[in-house]
Design a protein that fits this description.
Blueprint: H1 17-29, H2 32-42, E1 51-56, H3 60-71, E2 75-80, H4 88-98, E3 101-103, H5 110-121, E4 127-130, H6 134-142, H7 144-148, E5 152-155, H8 158-170, E6 177-179, H9 184-207, E7 215-219, H10 223-234, E8 238-242, H11 246-254, E9 258-259, H12 262-268, E10 271-274, H13 284-287, E11 295-298, H14 308-314, E12 315-322, E13 325-330, E14 335-339, H15 345-348, H16 355-375, E15 383-384, H17 388-401, H18 411-418
Parallel strand pairs: 1-2, 1-4, 2-3, 4-5, 5-6, 6-15, 7-8, 7-10, 8-9, 10-11, 11-14
Antiparallel strand pairs: 12-13, 13-14
The structure holds adenine (ADE).
Length: about 425
């Protein structure tokens, strides 16, 4: 394809496209549910001409979603939902090999990040697709024709859903949002097994530390925290959980983890992972108590969970000692290591969740976009989950792809479950 034939784009280097294409092909091979949906809608093209602005981590799995949406007729544009998660080779291949507009560069600064979001919105979308909420909030701030033209949006992650529920409460949400995160085929798998594995993957790729025998502190016991704690334990670490929610704390305790306040855990931990969605979870009081050599990482959406401003103030010097590892040499003689500048360690230091699990998350995204296109006009300016039939269908497709068969209720059992008469 001649350069002039490429769609509008801003990527690091189109020469990386061959490597990106191989990565995308690998992801496609491991995403059978999305492949099935592509086959189903390839002929009928139900999204013909629908303009979609997506702000997602630019990975090979996201590439597959963009390809699926384009095949179904959509005119898609993509920017990054995190400055460090873009895989430049994948971005290049999407532009060169698949004719998809991408505006994303690994390591972009805040200004470039928002320029890219603006470029993604420049074609006047009717659907937004977000991970964390930055594009949607930006579209709300811009207002005008841009906002008026948007029929609805989707949101991938807990953090974004929390932001949109707050907007709904305040009455400032101006179009319906489908909380893809809240589908069971999303959070039970992506958040738990995806974050669980990819966070450990990021930590190990960055540090090559041994988890066996280490004390590993997980801050937050939501679905992501559970996954991280479970996998760290599986690798032989002694796992401590910190929480603010009494019920989650109780669950963590009964799942067999030690539970304590972060300030106490600070004195014990060798490695720390924050997965709370909140800010300054590791704040100055905890930073002051860390052991020499402690390693801090974050797997929550934004880079606010570790108070890096405080740590910087406490430091005499900061140096990069390995890719994705910064050493903060503190005035009191201790050294504390921070991975990936406190950004999502699984995406910044590894490749994010494996394709097998993103398959279900992105099948939800695909069907959510279709749902908005087909039913958007009947939806209010609220946050919705996808209908349970869609969630179950995705689970059935995944089971079929895994070669797993399950039982169905007999008519007698169905009658029993919907009745109340039969007791003791
Ligand atoms: N979020 C977490 N892992 C991801 C991946 N591999 N692709 C896109 N978004 C993700």
């Amino acid at each position: 394809m001649a350069r002039a034939d490429f769609p509008p784009h801003a990527v690091a280097d189109l020469n990386l496209a061959d490597q990106g294409r191989r990565k995308i092909e690998w992801a496609i091979r491991h995403m059978p549910v999305l492949r099935t949906l592509r086959e189903r809608y390839r002929e009928t093209r139900p999204l013909e001409g629908v303009r979609i602005a997506a702000c997602l981590h630019v990975t090979s799995e996201t590439a597959h979603l963009m390809i699926a949406l384009k095949e179904a007729g959509a005119d898609v544009r993509l920017s990054a939902s995190n400055p460090l998660s873009t895989q430049d080779d994948v971005a290049a291949s999407l532009v060169r090999d698949f004719g998809i507009s991408v505006f994303a560069r690994h390591g972009e600064d805040r200004e470039e990040y928002y320029t890219h979001i603006q470029q993604t919105l420049d074609h006047g979308p009717s659907i937004t697709m977000d991970d964390g909420g930055d594009l949607t909030v930006y579209a709300h701030e811009k207002g005008g024709e841009l906002l008026a033209g948007i029929r609805g949006g989707t949101e991938e992650t807990t953090t974004g859903v929390i932001r949109f529920r707050a907007m709904e409460q305040q009455g400032t949400l101006r179009y319906p949002i489908i909380a893809v995160n809240d589908s069971r085929t999303k959070y039970l798998f992506d958040n738990r097994y995806g974050t669980g594995q990819s966070t450990i993957d990021g930590i190990l790729r960055a540090t090559n530390l041994l988890l066996a025998g280490s004390t590993f502190v997980v801050a937050g016991y939501g679905w992501c925290g559970r996954g991280v704690a479970m996998r760290a334990r599986g690798m032989g670490a002694r796992v401590i959980v910190t929480e603010v929610d009494p019920i989650r704390a109780l669950e963590a305790a009964m799942d067999g983890f030690e539970v304590m306040p972060i300030a106490e855990a600070a004195e014990r931990g060798d490695l720390f992972v924050t997965v709370t969605g909140n800010k300054h979870v590791i704040d100055r009081p905890a930073l002051e108590r860390l052991k020499d050599g402690a390693v801090l990482a974050n797997a929550g959406h934004f880079n606010v969970e570790i108070n890096l401003e405080a740590l910087t103030e406490m430091a005499e010097t900061v140096e990069e000692v390995r890719p994705s590892v910064k050493a903060y040499h503190l005035r009191d003689g201790r050294t504390v290591y921070v991975l990936a500048d406190g950004r999502l360690v699984n995406l910044a230091a590894a490749e994010g969740h494996p394709s097998v699990v993103m398959d279900m998350s992105f099948a939800n995204q695909f069907l959510a976009a279709l749902h908005i296109h087909q039913h958007g006009q009947t939806l209010e300016h609220r946050v919705y989950t996808l209908p349970p039939e869609i969630d179950e269908e995705i689970a059935r497709l995944k089971l079929a792809a895994m070669g797993i068969r399950i039982d169905t209720l007999t008519p007698e059992q169905e009658a029993y479950l919907s009745g109340w008469e039969e007791g003791t």
